[in-house]
Amino acid sequence: MRLASGLLCVLFSFVSAKSIFDGSSPHHVQRRDTKPKSNYTGVIGTKLQAFPTWFVSAGSNVTIYCKAHTDRKKYGDKVYLHLTWTNMRPGNRTKKIVASQPASAGITYELNPVTHEHQGVYTCDDNGSLPEVYVLDWHSMLWVEDAPPKASMEVMSHNRSQFFSNEAFTLGCQLPNDNAQWKMMRFNDWTGTVTECPDQVSSDHRLSSTISPVYLDSYRLYWCENPAGDRSNSLNVSIASVTVLESPPLPVMEGEDVMLRCYKRDRKTKEISFSFHTSYYKNNRLIDNSFGRGPFEQEGNFTLKAVTKADEGVYTCKMPEAGGSFESWLSVKARPVEE
């Protein structure tokens, strides 16, 4: 079914992940909905969230929440939600239901600790037991970082990972000097599918692909992989209609200055511009706005001076006349020690 989205901050009934994977057991945006509802007696919207994040390292602790956030006809006690995990190994995209609870209770699913076996696509959906109730599903990918990755993924055309619909951008993947058959892949959070990127060009141990996104208020995850399961780092690309945040899509070095910039696009003329009336947020807390609180720079930019690991986090921007951007994760890496 189609997707809904939102955030979940509360705890529900707990399910342990350990028995599922060791073999001992027998999105803040309202998504569009293209499926007609005239034949349904009720509609349930779902939420899917990972705390602290969907992008983790092996050994971390992650909790995944799946719940119903809209249920006007009160079908929550009759409809069961499923949390489904899809393996993302090349050529082996198998699915497994890892937890199930009534929609009225919701699912809290703990991964403690996370391993590479847990990575994959997670879907919050129903079991189809009440065909007259339409449940909007939600997909997200849990990415467990490889250390170090075998290939390097980057945005070649821009210094950002947020784009407007129909704004073309080019991704590149620097490959190791081997004979493996590397491919550039993408995850679509609307459909929960993993597919190859279109029109890939290979040259001098590099793959590239130019993309003109269509879907609004969505994100796609991009990476490179080979048949042996080796991967690059991942890039999370968001597609918006009005407001985007410019921030480095790849990790920056400690001590560097990082500039944040907010763009807006006119709904009618499609003209892209800046705004002096821009607020910036880190982890949902205001860090600057142009009304006298915090640094003010030309064209509404905000610069983080000499960044440290303390500056690492989720950043957003907001304009009164255009609304807020998607989230962008700023990663800070340690500067090499000089001998």
From TrEMBL:
GO terms for molecular function: transmembrane signaling receptor activity. It comes from the Eukaryota. InterPro entries: Ig-like_dom (IPR007110), Ig-like_dom_sf (IPR036179), Ig-like_fold (IPR013783), Ig_Fc_receptor (IPR050488), Ig_sub (IPR003599). GO terms for biological process: cell surface receptor signaling pathway; immune response. GO terms for cellular component: external side of plasma membrane. Keywords: Disulfide bond, Signal. Residues 36-124, 240-331 form the Ig-like domain. SUPFAM superfamilies: Immunoglobulin. Residues 1-17 form the signal peptide. PROSITE patterns: IG_LIKE. This is Uncharacterized protein LOC117549330.
